[in-house]
Amino acid sequence: MMKDTVNIALVGMGTVGSSLIEIFHRNLPLLEEKAGAKLRITWIADLRRTPFKDAVQKPRLTKDWRQVVRDPAVDIVVELIGGYEPARTIVLECLKAGKHVATANKALLAKHWDEVFSTAQDHRVQVYFEASVGSGVPVIQGLNEGMSANRVERIYGILNGTTNYILTRMTSEGLDFARALKGAQKAGFAEADPTFDIEGLDAAHKLVVLASLAAGGWVHLPDVSVEGITGIDVWDVNFARKKLGLVTKLLGIARFDDGKVSARVHPALIPASHPFANVSAEYNAVTIHGDAAGDVMFYGKGAGGPAAASAVASDVVYLARQVANGTADQIPYITRRERKLTMDPIENVVCRHYLRFTMKDKPGVLARIADILGRHKVSIASVHQDGGVRRGVPIVIVTHQAPEGAVQDAMKEADGMSAMIKKVVRLRIEDFK
Ligand code: HSE
């Protein structure tokens, strides 16, 4: 059925919702031209009393999202609540009521991927989610459509703006973690619960979305190894940058080798010459390596209201175009597939490592560290001893490529040495190979 007006409801009216309304005000003729239909925001549902006035669109305001579900005139629901619940219930109810959904909610997709897309498929409606990863960077369309001819082999991403902002300030201004975090919170990039950002979970949600698209099957969140940046010491950030030419970033990495998938989020040291080293503040970057296209890099603002709203508005346009043409029920944007994925655990990852041992300054200590590493078959590439800055002497060792499991065992043994003043600090070095 063709339609000349498409009705849109917004559920959740926070930073992104307000920016979306602004885009509608500023660019409505452009959006309508691209959609091929008139676009009307007919509802705004939010628990808070929104003193919202829109003389152009004149949406009805409600605190009860069920009113949106019950209104048969609503074609597209934009879910901007975030988090697992009640967002999951709202999205599922909307899909069951035959409404298409545009969502920015990476947490929901990562945790309930199969349920969301099978419900959409069963009810012949669509879920679009461009803003869920990389905010304003169109990486979802890029991967799902633009690179659809490729077998994806690797994905690397700086996927969280808050942590990238923190690490950028630690690197460039020497701020410690706590002060840099305060700056990020002030700047307004962080999730409602900033532990999602700094503990790496937000990046893990986004990696699940990208990896599931690339693998053609759901990569489950518990199968992603996740480490955040709360333990990062500015001493190591500075040392790595100044003495080793390595920059600290929080990376999401997914690899697809021989039918196996590995997915991990952790801080990593990367060569200062790599383009990711210049991805600063709230910016995100994703490199997707396809067997035909090679490396394709996406870059742009990964956090903040206007950037996320840009992606949500693009979803609305895509959906509205299909609603207007009466084709939205025909081919699912994401086809749910019962593909069983074999996950490769992080213990099998092989990379170089930065190890900092904080030792009592005594003869023979370095020899004992070398002995421990040697017995675990971890080969040393370089050793750096700096004057003691705090208690004890920091000895930094950069290893050759070594398996994660061997390095973990060596660290455990070294932590037991009587000359150790504090636990070994370890950062993986990512060479993007
Ligand atoms: N809190 C997120 C970030 C915002 O810092 O990247 C968008 O997902």
What layout of secondary structure does this protein have?
Elements: E1 5-11, H1 15-35, E2 38-45, E3 60-62, H2 65-70, E4 76-79, H3 87-96, E5 100-103, H4 106-122, E6 127-128, H5 139-146, E7 152-158, H6 161-173, H7 177-187, H8 195-198, H9 201-215, E8 225-226, H10 234-244, E9 246-257, E10 260-271, E11 283-290, E12 294-301, H11 305-325, E13 342-343, E14 350-359, H12 365-375, E15 380-385, E16 393-399, E17 402-403, H13 404-415, E18 420-429
Parallel strand pairs: 1-2, 1-4, 2-3, 4-5, 5-6, 8-10, 10-13, 10-18
Antiparallel strand pairs: 7-9, 7-11, 9-10, 11-12, 14-16, 14-17, 14-18, 15-16
Helix pairs in contact: 1-11, 3-4, 4-9, 6-7, 12-13
The structure holds L-homoserine (HSE).
Question: How is this structure best described in words?
Answer:
- With 433 residues, this protein is of the alpha/beta class.
- It folds into 3 domains: 5-135 and 305-325, NAD(P)-binding Rossmann-like Domain (Rossmann fold, 3-Layer(aba) Sandwich); 149-300, Dihydrodipicolinate Reductase, domain 2 (2-Layer Sandwich), CATH 3.30.360; 346-429, Alpha-Beta Plaits.
- Helices cover 37% and strands 26% of the residues.
- The protein contains 13 helices and 18 strands.
- The protein has helices at 15-35, 65-70, 87-96, 106-122, 139-146, 161-173, 177-187, 195-198, 201-215, 234-244, 305-325, 365-375, 404-415, and strands at 5-11, 38-45, 60-62, 76-79, 100-103, 127-128, 152-158, 225-226, 246-257, 260-271, 283-290, 294-301, 342-343, 350-359, 380-385, 393-399, 402-403, 420-429.
- Strands 7, 8, 9, 10, 11, 12, 13, 14, 15, 16, 17 and 18 form a 12-stranded mixed beta sheet that branches. Strands 3-2-1-4-5-6 form a 6-stranded parallel beta sheet, with helices on both faces.
- Helix 6 packs across helix 7.
- The longest helix has 21 residues, at 15-35.
- The protein is elongated and about 80 Å long.
- Bound molecules: L-homoserine.
- The site of L-homoserine (HSE) has 11 residues, from helix 6.
